[in-house]
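Protein data:
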Amino acid sequence: EVQLQASGGGLVQPGGSLRLSCAASGFNISSYTMSWFRQAPGKGPEWVSSSNADGGSTIYTDPVKGRFTISRDNAKNTLYLQMNSLKSEDTAVYYCTRQSNWGSRGKGTQVTVSS
């Protein structure tokens, strides 16, 4: 059974940092592009970033470029998202997905940026 579980969210002040983790089970992430999405209250899902199978190629949505970094440890079957210089508009539930398939998301983690 494919399972994805994000963790590492929390409450942080504007300008702060968080590192999200996504533990995968039931498949090897080393064979897949992996992605992060987020969903703010009352809004639809927004793609944030993707990493190809070996981590050598990464892409980001414009609002997070230069602030967020996606990475992966294929040996640990875990995906990460380092988030720096956080803004209030980054407040959302964050999910990881296999490839860019929103339907594959598992448990998300809440990120709240507020003073």
